[in-house]
């Protein structure tokens, strides 16, 4: 081979060597890059997938717990107290009507522990919000003592009165549910406290405050944008709550005494009131509701109270004398509205009938009996 041919051969063979080296170098670089990606990418992807899986599991767990809670609430309430519906049980039957001769069972017979705990949680929340900055004491149903029961009774009374002062049974369905539970709890707590025969003065003060504030709510409707019809309905609902609280003779007899005294005061106020004043109409409505409340309490519970071991005969004499005094106070209004005196005569006739049929009620002062049957 000549020298010229060798040179041409070398020239033709050089480029392939350079391109081969270049190709090998690029292949090596790509291989290294792929190795790095293969080492780093799985760890990053696995971390992301693991956190996504945990978030999905947590979300499913929360959804499961919410569903379990909803099913538990539905099962525990048994359609007695729906969260967003009116109370459909017996409690608000005979609203504004005389009860039949057959008296219903006491509300404690259907006192449910789940509802009691639910109500207590709501009351404690209200108390903690009212006493901001103070130490909040936690109560437990299992280890409750008399002091705890007394404090819970006071808190429940405040809760019921606040509910009546701020809530409207026409606009808020929860009013019916919460008021029902509050009345049941107050009656149950009062029964437990009276059985211990301790702190009688404190119990007397709490019950007297409850009755006074509830009667004041009956006579003083809510102020604001509520219609007169709404106020009137709210007054009848509060009257019904007092009527249900009167199931217990301790509350019922004191309510009768306080209501009859308020009737006497209101009758005197009529003589000095301007008949053209807007408040004059409300005074008539209040008078009707109070006299009707006396009739409800007497016709519903008097015969049952007389059979109770803790029936207070002295208090019975006091409120009977107060009712008779209220009838006499209404006589001066006969020229303005004789219906009140006639209505009170019917109430006193119902009272006299119960006394005549019950021997234990006839052991009161002779002068009171003479006025009653006169």
Give the low-confidence spans.
Answer: 76-86, 102-111, 133-144, 222-227
N-to-C SSE string, H for helix and E for strand = HHHHHHHHHHH
Residue share in helices?
over 70%
- Strand content is under 5%
Q: Gap between N and C termini, in Å?
A: 160 Å
**SSE class:** mainly alpha
Task: Indicate the topology.
Elements (H helix, E strand, L loop, with lengths): L2 H75 L35 H18 L15 H21 L7 H23 L3 H20 L8 H18 L3 H22 L7 H28 L7 H18 L8 H19 L8 H8 L1
Helix pairs in contact: 2-3, 3-4, 3-5, 5-6, 5-7, 6-8, 7-8, 7-9, 8-10, 9-10
In short:
The protein is mostly helical and 374 residues long. It contains eleven helices and no strands.
Which key terms come to mind for this protein?
374 residues; mainly alpha; 11 helices; 0% strand; elongated
Describe it:
The chain is an all-alpha fold. 72% of the residues lie in helices and 0% in strands. The chain contains 11 helices and no strands. Residues 76-86, 102-111, 133-144 and 222-227 have low confidence and may be disordered.
